[in-house]
Amino acid sequence: MSNKTTVISKELLEQQLAFCNHIRQYWLDRDTTPLAYVETYGCQQNEADSEKIRGLLIESGYSIVQEAEGADVVVMNTCAIREHAEQRVFGNLGALTHTKRRHPGQKIFLCGCMAGQDHVVQRIKKSYPHVDGVFSTHHLWQFPELLDRVLYTGKRSYFVEDEPGSIAEGIPQQRDSGLKAWVSIMYGCNNFCTYCIVPYVRGRERSRKSADIIQECKNLIEAGVKDITLLGQNVNSYGKDLDEGMDFADLLQKIVEIPGEYLIRFMTSHPRDASQKLFDTMAASNKIAKQLHLPFQSGSSRVLKAMNRHYDREAYLEKVNYAKSVMPDLVLTSDVIVGFPGETAEEFEETISLIQQVRYDSLFTFIFSPRAGTPAASMEDLTPKEEKNRRFDRLCAVQNEISEQIHSEYVGKTLRCLIDGTDKEFLTARTEGGRLVRFHGAPSLVGTFAEITITGSNTWSLIGEFK
Ligand code: SAH
Ligand code: SF4
Ligand code: F3S
């Protein structure tokens, strides 16, 4: 298949960098160092996008600060996955009327997944007059142009036209950490799970060229990064839109050929496309973390069909069993939705039995939230809210017990961990599987891999000893 993805040309990106210089001039003329605050909601994809937004702001002369109070620019990078996420954004956006009153020059922008929904844009236009600009994920690379327009004209501006999506290489990026990094390998999603808004707000699936990804990883590793997470809504369909003849397992293999001491992990894997080849590739390299986030969403094959997930309970279990057979120490995590429209009490019990069978290290649990425009939002949903809450609480209780048990089984083991920070009198580290370990040690150890013996545990973290 030929590459139909639109790649933003170098010339267009240079135009945006020229806008950055123009903005810099605006502030030089006023003899001020402007301040910018970026608030991020949602998943790692948004975290990675915020690093680019900060990169563009720094390029435009801004210093990044940690609060909206007093900032000249505030950017809210939003998530649309559930109603609760959107309500939080609207609440916090409303509160910005006060910071703007105290600092009238403040320019406020809303971007991210919520900005990809027309009804949200209309609501902002109508009811949030203090918001100066809105841009959807497709227009992130044009943020300098939008900011420039708002600054120089004072007019509210919108870059929200819907499109299949493109790839922009070379946007400056201000990374949060020198030790861990996100690397997007693809954008968008083609799966259209019936409950999910992502394909509507992030466009069609498109893969970055492998050479660009490998070069980025190489630069990061040479700069001292020790832990890289490859990002995509479904990394297992990497490369299908390219004509490189390379799938995700091939890409992983190429990346781990980069010399150095580091770990590669990735998310998210769609179970439909998770292959034995992928698990074999993971098993064969000590540079690939033995961690797999494999969302199952429901333990009922009927519900999975209604969700348009393209696998059933049996196929899912078969894949998990194979993965565990080639990686006995695999740390498995997952996402699950309770209360999908029409989910019966028996079907919910199938979800419980699946988690008991698989025994995940931890789970991200969600109550179904109808998203306007998705098929599931108009499906008949007769289960009362109280019953959904009851199912949710039971699910969490069952999982907590499993997590606690699995954690207690770590005690006595010695594991290779990346020491990644401090927390009060403790150092913190992550096991290869991403579990948090606290222990006493010299702060100079931060940034190194070390063998840590686990001496205690609770539901959420492990206690260790470094000798
Ligand atoms: N691309 C990833 C998931 C991204 S969204 C994948 O397919 O695995 C993260 C999680 O949010 C999903 O796995 C799902 O469990 C949850 N989610 C998505 N839409 C939801 C909705 N409408 N209501 C409740 N949970 C939802
Ligand atoms: Fe949403 Fe499904 Fe795509 Fe994941 S695979 S982002 S759940 S549509
Ligand atoms: Fe939310 Fe968008 Fe991620 S909807 S979960 S921020 S892809």
Q: What would your notes on this structure say?
A:
With 467 residues, the protein is an alpha/beta fold. It folds into 4 domains: 6-166, 3-Layer(aba) Sandwich (Rossmann fold); 177-289, Transcription Regulator spoIIAA, CATH 3.30.750.210; 317-408, Transcription Regulator spoIIAA (2-Layer Sandwich); 414-466, OB fold (Dihydrolipoamide Acetyltransferase, E2P), CATH 2.40.50.140. The protein has helices at residues 10-29, 44-59, 83-102, 118-127, 143-153, 198-202, 210-222, 248-256, 276-284, 301-306, 313-326, 345-358, 385-408, and strands at 6-7, 35-40, 63-64, 73-78, 107-112, 133-135, 157-159, 166-167, 180-184, 186-187, 206-207, 227-231, 263-267, 291-293, 331-338, 362-367, 414-423, 426-431, 436-439, 449-457, 462-465. The strands form 6 sheets. It has a 6-stranded parallel β-sheet, sandwiched between helices. The protein has a 5-stranded mixed β-barrel with strand order 17-18-19-21-20. A 3-stranded parallel β-sheet has the order 9-12-13, sandwiched between helices. Strand 4, helix 3 and strand 5 form a beta-alpha-beta unit. Helix 9 packs parallel to helix 11 and helix 12 (345-358) runs parallel beside helix 13 (385-408). The protein is globular. The N and C termini lie far apart (54 Å). The protein binds S-adenosyl-L-homocysteine, iron/sulfur cluster (SF4) and FE3-S4 cluster. S-adenosyl-L-homocysteine (SAH) binds next to strand 15.
